Amino acid sequence: MTNEFSHLRAGGAAGSIVADPSARPEAIEADAIVTFLTEGGIGSGTVAEIDRATGGLLSRLTAAGEITGKRYECVPVLAAPGLKAGQLVVVGLGKREDLDAGVLYRAAATASKHLAGRPRAKVVFVADGSWSTRQTEQAVAGAAVGMVGQDLYRAEKKRTRFGSAVWLVAAAEAVARGVVIGEGVNLARRLVNMPADDLYPQTFSEEAAAVAGRTGMEIEIWDEEQLARERCHAILAVGRGSSRAPRLVILRYRGPGAHDGQPDIALVGKGVTFDSGGLSLKPSDSMLTMKCDMSGGAAMLAAAATIAALKLPVNLVVAIGLVENMTGPAAYKLGDVITARSGTTIEIHNTDAEGRVVLADVLDVVRGFKPKRIIDAATLTGACMVALGHDVAGLFTNDQPCCDDLARAARAVGEPVWQLPMYADYDEQIRSDVADIKNVGDGRWGGAITAAKFLERFVGGIPWTHVDIAGPAFAEKPRPWIDGGGTGSLVRPLVELVRGPE
Question: What is the CATH number of the domain that holds 35?
């Protein structure tokens, strides 16, 4: 099994990413050197040093308009004079006043993705002394992500990890932390990119157990018998149509100096390892990418693994509900009434609105731990994509400070989020004439909000924020900085949230 955190090692061994603060770009031998350029010319800093080392080559190319510094422009220069490296890659950062950690993450990933198209023994990235520590970390994380593709099953890989990557003008501690963050994102991406025939509730729980073993987290896995004893009838109902039984994974982490009391934060993830829609069957085109319907669970597992690997001082609990939503002879049906673990009765109007039904039980389990706040992540609704598009996650909350903290963390690392309203009037749309609530609202409109209002019923008034990552969790087309497939959405914001402001 792949060890996502094995690449954090000293000495520049194969597959390593390390810092070398004292090396000079012109003196280092490598397959490629990557430097970063903002719009408006060479200016000062490390890119100016490289310009001098090459006899003003970058200045001439900039004056000729061959290099502009626009965001994510990636220009390779072969056999640049004055450098021992085989090529120089200049990556644009856009306007200097708009530079932030998110831009650096994507820019470094763009360069890394470009170079990883063929095997490279050694690639050197040149940071800039003006970057903050967190900005450097995010650039390193982006480089780690860019060299990894979705080609898990190809004999001939489209992306190849560098034998070693060396960061100049960067503190060793920042590089080490950036590697851990990047490999956390890659863990989530790998899980999302695995097909449902390989990753299903049992094997996902085994992956979680392996991650817990590597990072020192405690883990508890509830099988179908334990779920029945715990009255998790909502999870069991959704899983009835599959030959693969559901699971609930619970992870606990208490970092150095963290208190022993109630958890500071609970992370809850939707883990529908494949979603056919159940008896409310999806059309084939909509079903093709539904291996990604466990992206929320992958994000929470990867975020917890990263937090543990960084040894952050937090008391954390994570819960991931794992099911397949299939159409077998025992599949749950429209009109069924399910009694969730909390005692709330749910009338099923659409079996393709299954994620919220699963999370009803998971949130109730987490509520028993009495966390100070809860964050859940789910590829929950197509309606959120209609509202916000492919790149923006929707935020929904019962506690504004809780939501604001997560929004700040997301924006700090460059993942766009947007809060949607949670007016009480939306509660009326999920009331059932037969049961306490139904699992969809009235008609098409406001579907992301009515789904969030459904979840709100199960958090018991604990400060809570729901993140609908249906759009950003899975890229159907490649972007300059990442291949198609799983993106690792929300991993970096959750780590940033736990760490707090720089």
Answer: 3.40.220.10
Instruction: Give the residue numbers marked as catalytic.
Output: 282, 356
Spatial CA neighbour of 494 closest among 277, 274, 301, 259: 301
- The answer to whether residue 485 sits within a structural domain is no
Q: Where are the alpha helices (DSSP H) in 283-436?
A: 284-287, 295-309, 355-367, 382-388, 400-412
Query: What is the residue whose two structure tokens read 């969790």?
Result: 473
Partners of 166 in the beta sheet? 18, 124
Whether 171 is in a domain gets the answer yes
Mark which of 154, 179, 204 sits at the end of a domain: 179
Is residue 282 domain-resident? yes
Whether 386 and 262 share a structural domain: yes
pTM (two decimals): 0.96
- Give how far Cα 167 sits from Cα of 162, 208, 332, Å: 13, 31, 54
Could you tell me which of 188, 127, 162 has the C-alpha nearest to residue 415? 188
Tell me how far apart the alpha carbons of residues 47 and 189 are, in angstroms, rounded to a whole number: 32
d(CA 413, CA 419): 17
Whether residues 173 and 198 share a domain: the answer is: no
For the chain, how many structural domains are there in total? 2
Q: Which two tokens stand for residue 251?
A: 């992870």
Answer yes or no: do 269 and 156 share one domain: no
Asked whether residue 90 is domain-assigned, the answer is yes
Residues 6+ apart with CB under 8 A from 492: 105, 138, 141, 181, 184, 185, 413, 415
**d(C-alpha 136, C-alpha 139), whole Å:** 5
> SS3 of 408, please?
helix
- Work out the angle between the directed axes of helices 133-146 and 172-193 (0-180°, nearest 10): 40
Residue that terminates a domain, selected from 179, 204, 224? 179
Bridge partners of 437?
A: 346, 431
Residues 6+ apart with CB under 8 A from 468: 378, 379, 380, 381, 384, 393, 394, 396, 448, 451, 452
Residues in the chain: 502
Query: pLDDT tens, 296-315?
Result: 999 999 999 999 999 999 99
User: Closest Cα to residue 491, out of 419, 418, 409, 389?
Assistant: 409
* Domain span at 417: 194-471
Residues 357-407 pLDDT 10s: 999 999 999 999 999 999 999 999 999 999 999 999 999 999 999 999 999
Q: Is 392 helix (H, G, I), strand (E, B) or coil?
A: coil
Residue in the structure block whose two tokens are 């736990």: 498
β-sheet bridge partners, residue 253: 316
